[in-house]
Amino acid sequence: MMTLLEAKNIDYYYQDGDQRRFILKKVSVGFEKGKLYSILGKSGSGKTTFLSLISALDKPKEGQILFNGQDIASIGYEKFRRNDISIVFQSYNLIPYLTAVENVLVPMAITENELPKEKKQVAYNLLNYIGITEDKANRMVNQLSGGEQQRVAIARALSMNGDIILADEPTGNLDEELEEEIVAIFKELAHKHQKCVILVTHSSEVAQQADEVLQLRKGVLSHYE
Amino acid sequence: MDFKKRAISSIVRRKGKSVILFLVVFILGNVIAGAVAIQQSTTNVEVETKKKMRPVATVEMDYEAYEKEMSAAAAVEDQAINEPKVKDYEKISKLPYVKRYNLFISSGVGTNKLKAVTDPNGGMSYGGSSKYMFSLKGYNNKDILDVSEGLIKLTEGDGFTDNDIKKGSDAVIISQEVAEKNNLSVGDNFVLDAVVEVMMEAEDTEASEEEALQMQPKSATFDQPMRVAGIFNVVQKKADTQQTEQQRSDKEWRALEQMNTIYTTEGAAKAIQKKSDEKMGTSTDEGSAGEESIYYETTYVLKSAEDMDAFREDADALLPEYYHVVASTDQYEQVAGGLTKLNTIAKYIVVVAVAATLLILSLVVLLFLRDRKHELGIYLSFGESRGKVIAQIVLELLLISSVALLFSLITGNFLGGAISRSLIQSDWISNAAQPDQYFYMNNLMQSDLSFSDIQQAYKVTFSFGYILTYLLVGLGTVLISATLPLLYILRLNPKKIMM
């Protein structure tokens, strides 16, 4: 299968006087459609930096990030974020004065991807698909539980219909039962809906449920063994 | 859920913050609106009052500027003053704002036999060596502005002919009252028995001050034959019941002065001046009237009172140093000094309130944006352009501010009206009129304007000018106050916010 997203010889460092303090060093890795990946690493290992680079929130100092073989710098970082990649954050980052369904509708208004005309219905369907009823979909997000809020965040990530979903510690704030449910959703998205799902986690239990497990150690990415 | 819907949801659902923003704009808006209302109303009353005044101007010496210059250069000897020449006056008359123009010789002439109208209350006393005193005006044009502008009405005779003006004939136009007192009719010849006060000899001037006061001035007389070419009536304005005693007295005095005005030709006026100079011993040239003793007066009637400022600017540039244009509308500044003060204060309040609004609103919005940093980061991480994020914030600010500004447009107007009305009634404003600084104006330039007229004309209304000015100032201020918060958004880094 063709590589969808590829990091090529990525360096990321902070300049400290004459010294370079490397966070990532010559990181190269490819991600394919229909697979669930996990990136495992302790705090300070560089996993958040790596996530920010492949999600186009930051630029590598050296190397390239390719999407379908094209450098995301030439696509445009903002455009890449708008159309091709979605992020699920550990703290959900939902917009507090909007309802669940309105939160899902936000990226749908931003993306340039072609979406069905009945956007609101699509949003309800997505929420329903990940276990949020219409009644809850119409509630303000702060009236939902943590697990429900994370589901809304996942539905929101799906709503713009990009190929890649990045999740930064998506189960970090959830209990074990909910953790399993959320991971199951990600698995289904990868396998059934042919998304490329990349989970960044420090939990080896969560990481090991992925199709491929990668490990970041002192800025170097390798396959987990 | 585009930025417009998000903006509306944010306003509706974050009620507390919307209300705070509304109150900030509403309160400051009231101050701005009140000041704008006062400023507009004082300007309107000035424009409207000046429109009603006859747009007349003349040229006079600027004593204030001269004295200022002299006191600044105390050690320097008195500077010679170049008086304007006839050609200077004519140049001014050709300015595009001028509708009609008169240049005439203006002087006073005392008589013993030719009777003038006297004050029935005995309040008027001319002093000097003659029993009566007349104003003499010598024209080089048969179109007398006092007639064409309705100050006097020719009731008998045709006035001057072109021939009279050309030859400088002895034709005169006198008032009905003077004609009756002296049994004169149109076509009659009479003698103007001019009384001239003779200047003291040099040795006399060395007399002490006390002695000088006790001395009777020496006088001489000469006769000037005259012919009545016309009789006029002074056009009296309707009596104003609200006039003060001072105003009534001034009006009566002006009417009396007008009745005792003799209109004649420039030639006749020069002849009288020449004889007068000879008697007084001030003639410098045997063959001609001492031109330096002839005092020319000019009157320019403008097409519109609105042209006055432009006319003044252009005319002043054509005049020699220490001479300037005095306009009929200058009386407004004299009478309505308090209102002008109020206008200036209102302008300052607008500036201070706008500055305060800019500062306070910028800080409030910035504070609210810091609170919404995560929300803005979410939009940016979804690939929303910074332009649309800024548009959302500006839209929210504009929607709330527009409502607050509309409310304050009404309340501020009432507030401004109430405050300014009570200020106008107060001594602080009404005493700011400057009756002591009253300066001479010929009758054509005089008006009966009083501070109570201005008080009555003062109205704070919802004029188009007020609404437009306030909304432009208000919305402009709100938009400028959004600049600082927008810089904050431009500097946002979604990675730092979200990760």
Characterise the protein shown here.
By secondary structure, chain A is α/β, with parallel strands linked by helices. Chain A contains nine helices and ten strands. A six-stranded mixed beta sheet of chain A has the order 6-7-8-3-9-10, with helices on both faces. In chain A, helix 4 (100-110) packs across helix 5, helix 4 (100-110) packs parallel to helix 7 (146-159) and helix 5 (119-129) crosses helix 7. Chain A starts with a strand and ends with a strand. The mean pLDDT of chain A is 86. With 499 residues, chain B is α+β, with helices and mostly antiparallel strands. In chain B, strands 2-3-8-5-7-6 form a six-stranded mixed barrel. In chain B, helix 2 (15-52) packs antiparallel against helix 13 (337-371), helix 2 packs across helix 15 (386-425) and helix 2 runs antiparallel to helix 18 (464-481). Chain B is elongated, with a radius of gyration of 33 Å. Chain A binds chain B through residues 48, 51-52, 55, 57-58, 78-83, 86-87, 89, 93, 95-98, 102, 105-111, 140, 160, 168, and chain B through 1-3, 5-6, 9-10, 13-14, 374-375, 377-379, 381-385, 494-495, 498-499.
